[in-house]
Amino acid sequence: MADEALARAGLHFDELNKIRVLEPEVSQDTTELKEECKDFVDKMGEFQKIVGSFIDMVDKVSKEVEKEKMKAIGSRNLLKSIAKQREAQQQQLQALLAEKKMQSERLRVQYEALQKEEAEQNEFIEQFILQK
Questions:
Q1: 102-122 pLDDT, tens digit each
Q2: Where do the coiled-coil regions begin and end (predicted)?
Q3: Number of CB atoms found within 10 A of residue 128's CB
Q4: Greatest Cα-to-Cα distance within the chain, rounded to the nearest angstrom
């Protein structure tokens, strides 16, 4: 009965028979909530550490990827420039080949003309010798 009178006044006894303003169940719930909050804060701290290390790792990987990407772009550009150089060199060689073919044809025509002239001169010499 005394407990009921105190309870109506807002006073309660806990498990150690100390007078409390809160009901024992509310006090226990508050304590449990406090412990759960502490656990939650601890877990959030661990989560932040994990996320921080993950972000650092992702940053390192992204830097390496960017570095390799630049190497690949450089290699591709080098390959393109080498291909263009070879194409230009091939065109130069084809032009030189065409020039040499024209020179060969010109020399062949000149050779044939000289052979014809030699044959004419040999014939002239033979006729000259026969006339004497």
A1: 999 999 999 999 999 999 999
A2: 79-117
A3: 9
A4: 175
CA-to-CA distance for 19 and 51, rounded, in angstroms?
Answer: 46
Which amino acid belongs to residue 25? E
pTM comes to 0.49
* Token representation of residue 80: 């393109």
pLDDT at 125 over 60: yes
The CB density around residue 22, as the number of other CB atoms within 10 Å, is: 14
Token reading at 75? 């290699």
pLDDT surpasses 80 at 66 = yes
- For β-strands 19-20 and 12-13, DSSP reports them as antiparallel
